[in-house]
Design brief:
Pfam families: SurA_N_3. This protein is mostly helical and 230 residues long. The chain is built from 8 helices and 5 strands; from the N terminus they run H-E-E-H-H-H-H-H-H-H-E-E-E. The strands form 2 sheets. A 3-stranded antiparallel sheet has the order 2-1-3. A two-stranded antiparallel ribbon has the order 4-5. The chain is globular.
């Protein structure tokens, strides 16, 4: 069977996967520390596995520390004021993504991760450029860049295996795939952080936003590396 050389994936193909996952981490208010304790010490339980509050706080702290070290710290922090919600969304979503990938027999090899990261580095003018873009746009600390790369590789391979296209039908197919996985994991979020919406595949928010899987530009180039998810 012929194996396609993934090193020649086009930027547009990579950007499609990025656009599909980026909106998940975007619009939601900052988490508050009030409410009941359904799971003491846990921010959420996904598929029976805890996401500890300490894990969430560590991710937020790493990003805030990196932002604070920048000359544009005030602007960076203001631009990612919803960082706590974004990070919890991301932690939950990565477990859903892992479930979908396992069900589809999709994995991310070390070579694929390296190739994809190198492509992002080239497209952003070097490692420092990539780190700066991710920190600015999505509050991603340098140590968290590999998580973004892995998410992109798995999303791209799932999209390819399912033959997903940037059409309403294709995006609905992907929406259904992730909704089913989300429901199967019986996601339970500590009430003080909100509630998980399986259909939208994100934490509930009062904002009137479209489901993240449907937020795809008709022009893949419009979802370039500057919109990498966190």
């Amino acid at each position: 069977m012929h194996r396609r050389d993934r090193r020649h994936d086009s930027p547009a193909r990579r950007r499609t996967a990025l656009a599909l996952s980026a909106a998940l981490l975007a619009a939601a208010p900052l988490l508050t520390a009030c409410g009941g304790e359904a799971h003491p010490g846990a921010a959420a339980v996904v598929g029976g596995e805890r996401i500890d509050v300490s894990t969430l706080q560590a991710q937020v702290k790493a990003a805030r520390d990196a932002q604070s070290a920048s000359p544009q710290s005030a602007q960076l922090i203001a631009a990612t004021g919803d960082l706590g919600r974004q990070k919890l969304n991301g932690l939950i979503f990565d477990r859903i993504l892992g479930k979908v990938a396992a069900d589809q027999g999709v994995t991310a090899s070390r070579a694929e991760l390296q190739q994809t990261r190198q492509a992002f580095v080239r497209e952003n003018g070097g490692e420092e450029g990539l780190e700066a873009v991710l920190l600015q746009q999505q509050g991603v600390a340098p140590a968290q860049v590999d998580d973004v790369v892995r998410r992109n590789v798995l999303m791209t391979k799932i999209i390819e295996k399912q033959g997903i296209t940037e059409t309403p039908e294709g995006q609905q197919k992907l929406q259904d795939l992730f909704t089913a996985a989300s429901k199967s994991l019986d996601i339970d979020v500590n009430p003080r952080y909100g509630a998980w919406d399986d259909t939208r595949v994100q934490l509930d928010t009062d904002a009137d936003t479209a489901p993240w899987l449907l937020k795809v530009s008709k022009d893949p180039a419009a979802a370039g590396p500057e919109q990498l998810p966190g």
